[in-house]
Amino acid sequence: MPLDFTQLSHDLAALCRTTAEFIREEAATFDRAKIEHKGVHDLVSYVDQETERRLVAGLRQLLPEAGFITEEGTAGPDAHTEEFVWIIDPLDGTTNFVHGLPVYCISVALTQHRELVVGVVHEVGRDESFRAVRGGGAFCNDQPIRVTDVAELNSSLIATGFPYKDFGKMDAFLQILGAFFTRSHGVRRLGSAAADLAYVAAGRCEGFFEFNLNSYDVAAGILLVREAGGHVTQFLTDGDPLFGREIVASNQLIHAEMQATIGQFWQ
Fold it and tell me: What EC numbers are recorded for this enzyme (predicted)?
């Protein structure tokens, strides 16, 4: 019998909501002395690791045959060959969490034969559950969401993320950032790609771009934007935004303008 992806999305959303309660409890007493560094500015905490362990345990009950791609590696080696693979970021926005800035998310997606079929982003601070199923639409707290119908970049709000470990393309990025400053209503940096993508899907901003991202940063958000009527590509081509390390997401109407703006400075 084929999997019921709609029911699976509800079960996944419930698991993420329960796990978010653990994150909120830890946020109240978190000690910054307990952080670790994966890189100079790439932080991880026991909260990331324990959240991932809880998610993996719950997901193994929901779909025992699925493999995993996880940020913290608690499920063992990444799996790219199984029919079904969960892609997990247990705490997207760890730096925000560590500093007490309340924008951070759980992001979980399921692929079937490398195609996204289910995605949930749970924004912990606002306790908002964004959920999408391939072909079934996108929702926030079970209410349907859609991208905006803003047709021009100069009437749009754009989100982005700043480089924090690979600064080799900083000059080009700063030129792109400056172009968006002058050609839009403004640029916002929330510190969580999962939140950025969920907010494009919900119509809170018109577009989002960032580079040097991993699949677990964007998997659920890509499906949210697509199912909310938006478009997601790489910077200059359609490419593969899931594993391609760079992403442009929009309401479709401003997508060509966003890519053209990036293309002026990006090689």
Answer: 3.1.3.25
Query: Cα–Cα distance between 3 and 203 in angstroms, integer?
Result: 30
- Helix 215-227 to helix 193-201 angle, to the nearest 10 degrees? 0
Choose among 132, 125, 176: nearest CA to 10: 132
Residue of 44, 46, 129, 52 whose CA lies nearest to 94: 44
Q: Give the DSSP H/E element, type plus range, for residue 238.
A: none
Q: What's CA 205's distance to the chain center, in Å?
A: 15
Distance (Å, rounded) from C-alpha 171 to C-alpha 185? 23
Amino acid at residue number 62: L
Write down the pTM of the prediction: 0.94
Phi first, then psi, for residue 44 (nearest 5°) are -145, 150
**Contact (CB, 8 A) for 67 and 86:** yes
DSSP string, 158-180: EEE---SS--TTHHHHHHHHHHH
% of the chain with per-residue pLDDT over 90? 82
